[in-house]
Amino acid sequence: MNQTKHIYVVYIATTADKLWKAITDRELARQYWGHENVSDWKVGSRWSHVAAEPARPERIVGKVIEVTPPTRLVMSWADPKDEADKSQHSRVTFDIEPLDDMVKLTVTHDELAAGSNMERGITKGWPLVLSSMKSFLETGKGLDIWATKKPA
């Protein structure tokens, strides 16, 4: 299986602590992502990406691999149906670097099956989520990123 990776970099007028909290606090994540990131954020713990809609389905699941607040978070990433099959997991790394009155956020999504449904999904999803996160942290209001999706 060929693997690929995608790297996204965004500069945000905020602090490393506020950015860290936006990623790991379920209530804050819901405001710009439309989903909650749920975990105790300890190495080895399970995490899940839960839709904020009434049924609250899990959209993504994984394990916390590395935690260095507020500068680095690494976790596995998989469709819930593939949770038991580690060969289907990819990895997401959030690197947060303070720069004067802003931070540089680098999101690396690697160990990803090239051409997979997951790759197609993240190449659309990460730019939307990171744009909304930036808007949320800088203005207090995330983008309505799900308005861009058309019903099936």
The CATH topology is given as Alpha-D-Glucose-1,6-Bisphosphate, Chain A, domain 4
List how many beta strands DSSP finds.
7
Please provide the ordered H/E string of secondary-structure elements: EHHEEEEEEH
**Whole-angstrom Rg:** 15 Å
Q: What percent strand? A: 35-45%
Placed side by side, the strands forming the largest sheet appear as 1-7-6-5-4-3-2
- Unreliable segments of 5+ consecutive residues: none
Describe what you observe in this structure:
The protein has helices at residues 16-24, 26-33, 117-139, and strands spanning 3-12, 35-38, 46-51, 58-68, 72-77, 90-99, 102-113. The chain is of the alpha+beta class. The chain has a single domain (3-140), classed as Alpha-D-Glucose-1,6-Bisphosphate, Chain A, domain 4 (2-Layer Sandwich). The protein is globular and about 40 Å long. The mean pLDDT is 93.
Topology:
Elements (H helix, E strand, L loop, with lengths): L2 E10 L3 H9 L1 H8 L1 E4 L7 E6 L6 E11 L3 E6 L12 E10 L2 E12 L3 H23 L13
Antiparallel strand pairs: 1-7, 2-3, 3-4, 4-5, 5-6, 6-7
